[in-house]
TrEMBL record:
<keyword id="KW-0963">Cytoplasm</keyword>
<feature type="domain" description="HTH marR-type">
    <location>
        <begin position="13"/>
        <end position="144"/>
    </location>
</feature>
<dbReference type="InterPro" id="IPR036390">
    <property type="entry name" value="WH_DNA-bd_sf"/>
</dbReference>
<dbReference type="InterPro" id="IPR039422">
    <property type="entry name" value="MarR/SlyA-like"/>
</dbReference>
<dbReference type="InterPro" id="IPR000835">
    <property type="entry name" value="HTH_MarR-typ"/>
</dbReference>
<dbReference type="InterPro" id="IPR055166">
    <property type="entry name" value="Transc_reg_Sar_Rot_HTH"/>
</dbReference>
<dbReference type="Pfam" id="PF22381">
    <property type="entry name" value="Staph_reg_Sar_Rot"/>
</dbReference>
<protein>
    <submittedName>
        <fullName>MarR family transcriptional regulator</fullName>
    </submittedName>
</protein>
<keyword id="KW-0805">Transcription regulation</keyword>
<keyword id="KW-0238">DNA-binding</keyword>
<keyword id="KW-0804">Transcription</keyword>
<dbReference type="InterPro" id="IPR036388">
    <property type="entry name" value="WH-like_DNA-bd_sf"/>
</dbReference>
Length: 150
């Protein structure tokens, strides 16, 4: 008696959601050995990148919007980075309802220590500049489409 194999429920390898999930996890894992010596987790590194690249000290709200993080996720990250001496949170003089985030000298110095991280990750990923730009463009399109739909 020949048994017919059950069809797969979903072929995970061809599903966009699964491939994005695995790529995201793999990317975070690639960062781990580079960030551990700096005392940063990947989410903390993203916060620091945002602060290093901000033209002026952002509010917590603006930082959360930029990083696509809600306050329940962002606040503990900021508390840990503040406890480590990398940043300060304080009320804005112009509007005390707004909490502003500024880098400390230690936080600014950490930028130099992390300077090689993007290059090392780029080498690990193995895409050329054109491929990287194309992938970022496609990911931004996906993010925009999903954000539009709520």
């Amino acid at each position: 008696m020949t048994q017919t194999p059950e069809p797969p429920i979903h072929d995970l390898d061809t599903m966009l959601c699964f491939n994005l999930y695995v790529a995201s996890r793999s990317m975070v894992m690639a960062y781990r050995p580079l960030l551990e010596p700096l005392g940063l987790t990947y989410p903390q590194y993203l916060v620091m990148l945002a602060l290093w690249n901000a033209p002026h000290p952002p509010t917590v709200k603006a930082l959360g919007e930029w990083l696509h993080l809600d306050s329940g996720t962002l606040s503990p990250l900021l508390k840990r980075l503040e406890a480590a001496g990398h940043l300060k949170r304080h009320r804005r003089a112009s509007d005390e309802r707004e909490l502003e985030v500024t880098l400390t000298p230690q936080g600014r110095a950490l930028r130099d220590q992390a300077a090689d991280v993007p290059r090392l990750i780029g080498e690990r990923v193995g895409l050329n500049d054109r491929q990287t730009r194309e992938l970022i463009g496609l990911l931004r399109l996906v993010i925009g489409n999903l954000d539009e739909q709520g």
